[in-house]
Amino acid sequence: MVEFHADDYGLFPAQSRRILQCFTEGALNGVSLMPNSPFLEDCLAMLPEKGLALTVHLNLMEGRAVAPKEELPHLVDGEGVFRVSFAALLFARLTGRYGVYRRELKRELSAQIHALLPAFQRRGAALRLDGHAHWHMLPVVFDALMDLIREEELPVRYIRIPREPLGLLARRLFSVLPFHPINIVKSLLLHALAGRNLRRHREALSGMERKLFLGVLFSGRFDYPKLSRLLPALEAEAARRGWGLELLLHPGAVYEEEDIRALTNCCDRRFLTSPDRMAEAEALRRIGRKEEANA
């Protein structure tokens, strides 16, 4: 089965309604829920009773922490807003803060998962996890997460491993152009981090579901031409491996001035207000219409 997935659901009500339009009018069948959003309960109430696979969108870069700020001095500022950087977490061992970060991360990740766990339990939904901007793949974050899953015996069915099929994409280079060059760096880095985490936590991950994943290389503009050209090859590769297939898009644009002002991360502000969000939403609508016509 192909999972057409949207991240960042619940960040703001208007933005979440745009995501849901891709479910009612398109192919969207999975969303990731922002556990630290002040609008979370209102957005959860908007979700349909069935038809959408739900995932906890672990977030360490946008907005305020869920755990008390006093317990997270290395992750947040005095207002509880996330201020730790990707680089600081990536090089945690070199700076000697690995142990400190790991303890604070475990506290915050636990608070975020438990903020959403009742909603998953009410729906009888499997507990699935991923990360905002894929920060969950950073070694210190992933190690803290696996500690937490083991210690709290959390029934996690799936953790997104954003390791894209680079060989398949390279053989179809002209089908995937254009894309932002920086996304090559991101994809390669996440490929390396995924390999490390899979090796280190092989036993714990072996009982979880695996999916072929695509969504980093085209992050920013995963439009309909790319999606439609690559979909048959991706489905065939996922079937060959005996996995599912997860295609990540970001159709949740943030265009309301009040919501834009509320964003605390400058990268999120640029990304979520881009017109490219509309191109990704249209891709999901067109795929949905095509599937409907073929049914």
Question: What is the fold-level CATH name, i.e. the topology?
Answer: TIM Barrel
Q: For the report, how would you describe the main beta sheet?
A: 7 strands, parallel
The proportion of residues in beta strands is: 5-15%
Order of helices and strands: EHEHEHHHEHEHHHHEHEHHH
> Within the largest sheet, what's the order of strands?
5-4-3-2-1-7-6
Q: Give the mean pLDDT.
A: 95
Describe what this molecule looks like in 3D:
- The chain is of the alpha/beta class and 295 residues long.
- The chain has a single domain (2-294), classed as TIM Barrel, CATH 3.20.20.370.
- It has 14 helices and seven strands.
- It has helices spanning 13-24, 40-46, 86-90, 92-95, 98-123, 139-152, 166-170, 173-176, 182-200, 202-205, 224-241, 257-262, 266-272, 276-294; strands at 2-9, 30-33, 53-58, 127-131, 156-159, 211-214, 244-249.
- A seven-stranded parallel β-sheet has the order 5-4-3-2-1-7-6.
- Helix 1 (13-24) packs parallel to helix 14, helix 5 (98-123) crosses helix 6 (139-152) and helix 11 crosses helix 14 (276-294).
- The two termini are 15 Å apart.
- The model has no long low-confidence stretch (mean pLDDT 95).
